[in-house]
Predict the structure of N-(5'-phosphoribosyl)anthranilate isomerase.
Amino acid sequence: MKLKVCGMKYYDNITEVANLQPDYFGFIFYEKSARYFNGTIPEIPETIKKVGVFVNATVEEIIEKVNKYNLQAVQLHGNESPEFCEMLRPLNIKIIKVFSIKDTFDFSILKSYELVCDYYLFDTKGKLPGGNGYTFNWNVLKDYPSAKPFFLSGGIGLEENENLQKFLKTKASKKCHAIDVNSKFETEPGLKIIELLKKFKSQV
């Protein structure tokens, strides 16, 4: 199971977390977020893919960040349409479309995104477009109809490990590509706790 650490913000902390060799780093380019990134990314191993997180940004904004930070993927957290995703295809990067879930989800929504996205990400529906700090009902994913791999996100921390291990043994998890963690591993927005991440990574 791959690991994505999202909401990276501080130069030295990015370097420290990179030593743990996660598979993805998430950098949030949404100005209203407490984890908004506007700094410099240090040299990190090429094995760690850099993901830019956007909320209803313009194509021009996304292209600018992709080029500036040499991003390998974009994560779309807003109301981006399939047509919008299609416009990003020429960038030759991975496109992750986010869908928020609470207790139910209409999976028919995914149909129009099948040909324009590389991954889906399922997050917890809350007041904010991500970073709400609690999990959704993972049983909803038992009805996942797509062959496309997905990221599991939303308030995942060490305390969810038992439930996570159970989930990873279910049919619903067969297409789960990566676990996405963020706020449960911080001392403040964007500042990750190395020991907690190390422990989590060893258990997943």
